[in-house]
Design brief:
With 172 residues, the protein is an all-alpha fold. Helices cover 72% and strands 0% of the residues. The protein is built from eight helices and no strands. Helix 3 runs antiparallel to helix 4, helix 4 runs parallel beside helix 6 and helix 6 (102-115) packs parallel to helix 8 (138-156). The longest helix has 19 residues, at 138-156. The protein is globular. The protein starts with a helix and ends in a 16-residue tail after the last helix.
């Protein structure tokens, strides 16, 4: 099977610089994903932020399309830059609130819950589940339930037995 990184490399091979904003966003995301896959978080962050600056200047702030914000928050979270992770997640959440779509709002709450420690993070994850339980994407419901389950499992262990937050490449 071809891995996502291999497919991304093939798509980027010999590609012309993208003039269309949709293609620019796709190529920026692919470059960021490849850098993340290689463990080069500073380069990944630079690709995502560059992509975000261009899209925002063009007025593209729809949270359903702003996957770059999610990746920025998660990279900051993985690097233990909590304030930066929270700032990026809060901006994404504010835009999702304004947009109003249940799936985008659940995804934003899941991101905010992922980067928020302790009971407040768990509550945000519960809200993410509640929003898509009755309407919205079933896939988003599955992601939210999975993240909530991970967090509850990690938090239920006694302090000395807790595994560190994996700071994994979350599916947000």
């Amino acid at each position: 099977a071809v891995s996502d990184a291999t497919l991304a490399e093939r798509l980027l091979e010999g590609a012309e610089p993208a003039a269309d904003l949709r293609m620019f966003a796709l190529f920026g995301a692919l470059k960021g994903m490849l850098a993340e896959d290689r463990g080069n978080l500073p380069v990944a962050l630079a690709h995502y932020l560059d992509c975000g600056r261009v899209l925002e200047r063009a007025g593209w702030v729809n949270p359903a399309f702003a996957h770059w914000q999610v990746r920025v928050a998660l990279i900051h979270h993985r690097a233990a830059r909590t304030a930066d992770a929270l700032a990026a997640a809060r901006t994404h959440h504010e835009r999702a609130l304004a947009w109003g779509a249940p799936t985008a709002l659940s995804r934003a709450l899941r991101l905010l819950g992922t980067v928020t420690e302790g009971t407040p993070g768990i509550e945000l994850l519960r809200q993410a589940v509640d929003i898509v339980e009755t309407e919205g994407s079933r896939l988003e419901l599955a992601h939210s339930l999975t993240e909530l389950g991970r967090r509850l499992q990690r938090e239920s262990l006694p302090e000395g037995d807790r595994l560190p937050d994996p700071k994994y490449r979350a599916t947000v």
